[in-house]
């Protein structure tokens, strides 16, 4: 854990975890490095400490220095690391970027309750036959971290994704005045989130409740992208259907499907659907969305930190039947003396 992150955690200050596949498998260098720096700056500006998670030479890092960010951004042979990949990547001393799943694990072990990303994975279209379901969903079902994202990519089966999250026991809430579940660049997906929180205070209350209950599942806060950056849903949907048809005709499946789909939709619409494509206009659009998530997530982390501090303060008075607080000595020195009395009478 980077010292600045560790210090913030020890002091109870708000920390926001960030993934690194955006850096390693997203934009080309040096745009990816610039994006990572700007997102971390957004977190800092909004009162939280950024903790980008990455794998460097077989070791999980929670919080990266600028030199480490540049290493991941400029390296060619780095791995995309999810839960299943962690044992192998660590055992082989490899480097890589952590997915939503991989980042959630590291954040939870470090004690960071809030994690910001672009969009989570989901159930792929046709997933009822292929069983192509992102590990992000099962991770949300078993790791108690709040994930702030712009919903799921519109190339996925959003309805089945929400159903799967329900099965996993994940509390899903849209952020803002509407319960409409966002689809990354589109503010409307045609599906309603089970719940919605109007602002960062309500989101913090929701996360605090989940943590206090000791649930093993996470929370998903779905943030609609800024109105001025939103892509018309029907345009994207038409491109998706055309790209799916072409993928089927070419026999493209499995882990090759998403990159193909994103590239094709980008060609058909001129609009990047995630953070994979590199013209300046597209990068600006992607960055605006991720920065918006970082802003909202940081405000939630700040509100959660204040709430937890207030609750700890409110619980300080001890009941008469409670055990008294025990002193903790830090930095003490023990000196032992052994003595034998010459006189049998001990004075």
From TrEMBL:
Pfam families: Indigoidine_A
Keyword Glycoprotein in record: no
GO molecular function, one term: pseudouridylate synthase activity
Lineage top rank: taxon: Eukaryota
InterPro entries: Indigdn_synthA-like, PsuG
PANTHER family for this protein: CARBOHYDRATE KINASE PFKB DOMAIN-CONTAINING PROTEIN, ZGC:136858
Protein name in UniProt: Carbohydrate kinase PfkB domain-containing protein
Organism expressing this protein natively: Phalacrocorax carbo
């Amino acid at each position: 854990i980077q010292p600045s992150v560790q210090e913030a955690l020890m002091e109870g200050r708000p920390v926001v975890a960030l993934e690194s596949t955006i850096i390693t498998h997203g934009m080309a260098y040096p745009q990816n490095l610039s994006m990572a720096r700007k997102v971390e700056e957004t977190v800092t500006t909004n009162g939280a400490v950024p903790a980008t998670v990455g794998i460097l030479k077989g070791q999980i890092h929670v919080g990266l220095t600028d030199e480490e960010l540049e290493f991941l951004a400029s390296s060619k042979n780095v791995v995309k690391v999810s839960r299943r990949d962690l044992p192998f990547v660590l055992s082989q001393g490899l480097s890589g970027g952590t997915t939503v799943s991989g980042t959630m694990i590291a954040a939870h072990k470090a004690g960071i309750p809030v994690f910001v990303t672009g969009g989570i994975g989901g159930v792929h279209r046709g997933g009822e036959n292929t069983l192509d379901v992102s590990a992000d969903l099962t991770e949300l079902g078993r790791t108690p971290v709040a994930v702030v994202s712009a919903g799921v990519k519109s190339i996925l089966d959003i309805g089945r994704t929400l159903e799967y999250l329900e099965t996993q026991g994940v509390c899903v809430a849209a952020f803002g005045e509407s319960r409409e579940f966002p689809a990354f660049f589109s503010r409307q997906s045609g599906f309603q989130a089970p719940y919605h929180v109007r602002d960062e205070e309500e989101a913090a209350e929701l996360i605090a409740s989940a943590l206090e209950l000791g649930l093993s599942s996470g929370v998903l806060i779905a943030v609609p992208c800024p109105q001025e950056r939103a892509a018309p849903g029907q345009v994207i949907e038409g491109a998706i259907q055309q790209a799916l048809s072409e993928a089927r005709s070419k026999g493209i499946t499995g882990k090759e499907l998403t990159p193909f789909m994103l590239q094709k939709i980008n060609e058909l619409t001129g609009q990047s659907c995630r953070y994979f494509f590199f013209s300046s206009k597209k990068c600006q659009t992607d960055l605006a969305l991720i920065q918006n998530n970082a802003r909202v997530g940081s405000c939630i982390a700040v509100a959660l930190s204040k709430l937890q501090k207030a609750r700890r303060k409110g619980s300080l008075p001890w009941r008469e039947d409670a055990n008294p607080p025990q002193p903790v000595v830090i930095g003490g020195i023990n000196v032992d003396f052994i003595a034998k009395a010459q006189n049998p009478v001990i004075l």
